[in-house]
Design a protein that fits this description.
Number of domains: 1
Structural class: alpha+beta
Order of helices and strands: HHEEEEEHHEEH
Strand order of the largest sheet: 4-3-6-7
């Protein structure tokens, strides 16, 4: 209590509120990843499970994120922008999970992206891991709205720089790894009924 009282007078109220709100949000897992080709460019869709342990529904606005795989060095995936993201909240639950889809356009040529991933021993070794865990590096800027009974309270200019060890289903990881391999011309052509078909 004494520490919180001291922080309140040392820090601007908005900065303190922002840190407390963001601390109630955690990304706990990757549910799905898919590589796809659209208009001559490759995109990686990353679906993350976001957990809200607070007591308010949250609204992220004007979101600008940049995603990388954190291994021996960062392997940049690319930028992802969203105008609005709602983080759910259920009154009688200790936490509420929400799926958030990050749509990222690959920041590098697909062959270079494949080369960086395949040359990473840390990432390549996950193919044989029955319960792989990927380190996802997320940098971002956004505004956050806090749902109150009167309406919304908005905090502006939130910045995050997180490295998160995330569980990912093995079949999702292997499927995505092979999709990147095929797109770079290093593997067999995908079959029509495979989930990693490159949609246009």
């Amino acid at each position: 209590m004494g520490l919180l009282f001291t922080l309140y007078f040392l820090l601007p109220p908005v900065a303190l509120s922002s840190s407390l709100v963001v601390d109630e949000i955690d990304i706990i897992a990757i549910r799905d990843m898919q590589l796809r080709k659209e208009g001559g460019s490759y995109f990686m869709d990353v679906v993350c499970v976001v957990r809200n342990t607070g007591k308010h529904i949250l609204k992220f606005q004007k979101c600008k994120f940049d995603l990388s795989f954190a291994a021996e060095k960062d392997i940049r995936i690319g930028p992802a922008a969203k105008n609005e993201v709602l983080i759910g909240w259920e009154k009688n639950s200790p936490h509420t999970d929400t799926d958030i889809r990050f749509v990222t356009q690959l920041a590098t040529d697909i062959k270079k992206f494949h080369s960086e991933i395949s040359s990473s021993g840390e990432i390549s070794s996950l193919i044989l891991d029955p319960a792989p865990k990927l380190n996802l590096h997320i940098r971002g800027e956004f505004n956050v709205g806090i749902g109150m009974k009167q309406g919304w309270v908005y905090l502006k200019g939130i910045t995050i720089d997180w490295i998160l060890p995330l569980d990912v289903p093995r079949d999702v990881f292997v499927r995505t790894y092979k999709a990147i391999e095929r797109a770079a011309g290093k593997g067999d052509e995908p079959l029509d009924d495979e989930l990693d078909i490159f949609a246009s």
